[in-house]
Amino acid sequence: MRDRFASRQNLYANIIYTILQNTIQTLLETLKPMQETSTAAIAKVSDYFKVLSEVSRLLVLCTLKSGTKNVSEIVETTGLGQANVSKHLKILTQAGFIERTPKGVSVYYQITDPVVFQLCELVSHRLSIHLEEQAQHSLDLKSFQRSM
Fold it and tell me: Of 138, 143, 69, whose CA–CA distance to 107 is shortest?
């Protein structure tokens, strides 16, 4: 009985060690090219992601994915207030994600670089994988707890 218990402990310890080792290796591989990149370039990348870090801006971008819209249409689709939408449109325009085109008394907005959606899909995919891995690790740990 003790041998079986010790064997399970070793198994779970090895699983945890492997997970940590893989996480550290991935982190080191990610940081290596960044160390070779200039601080100014890294700051630009950081600024790019800061623009995408606001939920309301992502809602606005998703609304524009289907095509050009004016402020009223964006407000109606997102459920955000007009002042809030205008603020985010300004930030997205300044960052180069969208462009504005005046037409009569209205201004229409459209996506300038659809790569932003590929980036969001990539992040969503990675988050999904990460959550699945966390769920599996949680199950492994619960199994370990029950065996104690």
Answer: 69
